[in-house]
Design goal:
about 230 residues
Length: about 230
């Protein structure tokens, strides 16, 4: 396409974005960041800051930055994304809800627990204004908020949020067949926080092997902390 129509033609830019999104599904996060750092300025110049493809690229880079532990940068991308999407398509649009949630996730992972929880709660509230057909997305948001609550020691509230999540549906939504086992990991953290070591061990056994190949640094760190805590 570069040879046929040039490097900044929308068709060429779209193909480059698709490649980065493919890398994201493959959890090749450094490749995603490298590609999109180069692509974003071209998208912004050629299509505009709030074009659909620009926002899709921003969303992919945000996820990759969060996965490698660059939480402040991920949160900055997320803030820009959800505000642009809300202004363009409304606060309850998929891009706005997902972007604000991912912003909150990055903030919670960076230790800004209350700010992050507030953003995810606001995204949930916006989603529920038009929930019909979007229950799977709601489950993903509830799991994200539960992680923040676990960090805050709000174990009962976290457990309530994790009930009846459509794990298969969220697996498909996020493109990660092992995502549902993060719910088991969260339940293990809750049980350990409440002093039930036996229950924590059972949940952790469910999660450990399926998540052992995860490339997300935060997931790996959670596994390591839980393993160490249960061995004490």
């Amino acid at each position: 396409m570069t040879e046929l129509v040039g490097p900044d033609h929308p068709d060429t830019l779209l193909l480059r974005l698709k490649r980065a999104q493919t890398y994201l599904i493959q959890q090749r996060f450094d490749d995603v960041i490298t590609d999109l750092d180069r692509l974003m300025p071209l998208l912004e110049e050629r299509l505009g800051d709030d074009h659909r493809l620009t926002l899709l690229a921003l969303a992919a880079r945000q996820q990759a930055l969060g996965a490698v532990g660059r939480y402040d940068q991920a949160a900055a991308d997320g803030e820009r994304l959800w505000r642009a999407a809300a202004a363009k398509d409304g606060a309850s649009s998929f891009a706005a809800v997902a972007g604000r949630t991912d912003t909150g996730v990055s903030q919670c992972r960076a230790g800004q627990l209350q700010t992050g929880a507030d953003n995810i709660s606001a995204a949930l509230e916006a989603l529920r204004t038009e929930l019909a057909g979007r229950e799977v997305l709601e489950g993903a948001l509830r799991a994200a908020l539960a992680d923040c609550y676990i960090g805050m020691g709000r174990y009962g509230a976290a457990r309530d949020l994790l009930q009846d999540i459509d794990r298969v549906g969220v697996n498909q939504l996020v493109g990660d067949p092992s995502w549902g086992f993060q719910v088991d990991l969260a339940l293990a953290e809750i049980a350990l926080g409440e002093g039930d070591v036996e229950l924590a061990g059972r949940h952790f056994t469910q999660a450990r092997e399926p998540l052992s190949s995860a490339q997300d640094i935060f997931v790996r760190q959670r596994l390591e902390r839980m393993a160490a805590a249960l061995e004490e």
